[in-house]
Amino acid sequence: MEKSDIKIIEEEKSFKQKLQPWGYLLPTIVILTIFMFIPFFQTIIRSLFFTDNFGKMQNFIGFGNYIELLTSSSFWNSVWVSFRFVLIVVLVGVVLGFVSALLTQKAFPGLAFFSTSYATPMAIASVGMALIFQVMLNPSVGIINKILGAHGNMLADPGKALIIVAILTAWLNSGMNYLYFSSGLASISDSQYEAASIDGANGFQQFMYITVPALRPTTFFVIVTNIINAFQSFGQINILTKGGPGEATNVIVFDIYREAFMNYRYGFASAESVILFLIILALTILMFYIRSKGGKVQ
Amino acid sequence: MKAKALNAAELKYIRHEKMKKWGGIILNIAWWAFLMFPLIYAFLMSVKPPADLYDPNAILFPKNPTLSNFTDVFKVAPVGRYILNTVLVAVLITLSQIVTSFLSAFAFRFLKFKGNKFLYGLVISTMMVPGEAVIISQFLMVSSWGWTDTLMVLVIPHIVSAFNIFLAVQSLENFPYEIYESAKVDGCSDLNFVFTIMMPLLKPTIGSMAVRSFISAWNMYMWPLLTTNNDNVRTIQIGLSMLNAEDSQSMVLMIAGVVISMIPSLLIFVIGQKSMVKGLTSGAVKG
Prior knowledge:
The complex is a heterodimer.
Chain A: H1 2-11, H2 15-46, E1 49-51, E2 57-60, H3 64-70, H4 73-103, H5 111-119, H6 126-136, H7 143-148, H8 158-186, H9 190-198, H10 203-214, H11 216-231, H12 235-240, H13 252-261, H14 266-297
Antiparallel strand pairs in A: 1-2
Chain B: H1 2-35, H2 37-46, H3 68-76, H4 79-110, H5 116-125, H6 131-144, H7 152-155, H8 162-172, H9 177-185, H10 190-201, H11 203-218, H12 222-227, H13 236-241, H14 248-282
Helix pairs in contact in B: 2-14, 3-14, 4-8, 4-11, 11-14
């Protein structure tokens, strides 16, 4: 019935009506073409050129930038740093979000206050949080050194700097993770727990055999989303460490920024952008795959 | 006798449940203090007079709390201007994203035309391109147009969001086609239908979209960092990150600035949280 109705409308189409959809889509088409599609292809083309200090393409060098990139130890350092960074962000972020979700699984007075609080990191800017961390870690007046009885600047320690920016990023992600986990928990019906407790299962057993398996699709989804987010972290690193000390926190996105806007090597940085795009693309495809599979599980 | 035994068991059960409840509350308070510590610390710092910073008895709690940092920060930098700029940018981005998303979603859902599916796929595919991967070309392009140091350069590239188009199309999935048809029969124009019938019925989606767009526009960092270099167009995030915080005086002022900058996004978040949660989780895995 719906189809025949559409047909009637279609038959009455005039030239003006044929143009109509494009009118509605005009802003979308124009903006995405100018600010997404063209820059995207320009980035690919620019990555094949040697560029001057203003980003003008000088001469075609084929895969020259890619070869230089893939043979530079600095790039592989960035890949390794990004990998460790992402690992800490995901681990800490998932734990923070998951614990918050478990604590608010059952109703109690004040629940609304706690659950809103646990989600607030979603609304907090990476800049604001980075500036707070900067003061907390200040060698002379910061609270962290006072609590730990430590001296010296932790952000100047190559081993600690990466962990600190990763924990900060995990905190920023924890609000979103909390929401995903608590909606996952909410979808487990109470009757499952009741049946288990009648059968004599204790709290730990219920957690291991009901909660954990039910949250598996959610957890996969959260992990992949967190990985993608973590790869794109920039503000906190630019403010707290600027990729340093040395190259200890020089993740791929920061290295792109450094090569393009500090060293003015636009072509080289474009090649690195293309590689970042390929990494994110692979992860996004993985996410959609898990998502479609996760939907079928239940 | 049997009834008495049951009563005792019941009492035990009730006591057990009560203990669990109080245990839960105590655990939550401890976890809250741990998780929210950076924000609590920021708030306590923002009401601290600079002299308290070196006082060993006032490491966490200020001895003489003051609100003067909140007014003084406006004297060290044009924070008022930054906030005004950011409000302008965030509101314009939010409103235009809502309008462009629903206009597009309407066309994708209700209008039949050649290439509908292909175009929608193309729009969705842009979600896979991380902003950082195209930012070099975007920057070189807008600077060749002389757009740098304007509010326009902060707004125009962000008036369309592929993700919000996706959300809008999703929300129209279960929208009855009959409503559109009867509106047409009644002589309602398509544009009228979008703004007076369709969008009012999708308030929860609009709410979630508005919260998300506003917060991400308010917190935007890399793009304004690259394209603006002038106090007249600087956003609050850039302005704050450029404050010098070497000595104790400027440190507490900066933190006061940070607290001020968080208020609008937190307010919007708390107000719109319910609809945002719905919008967010509807797109996620159904566990």
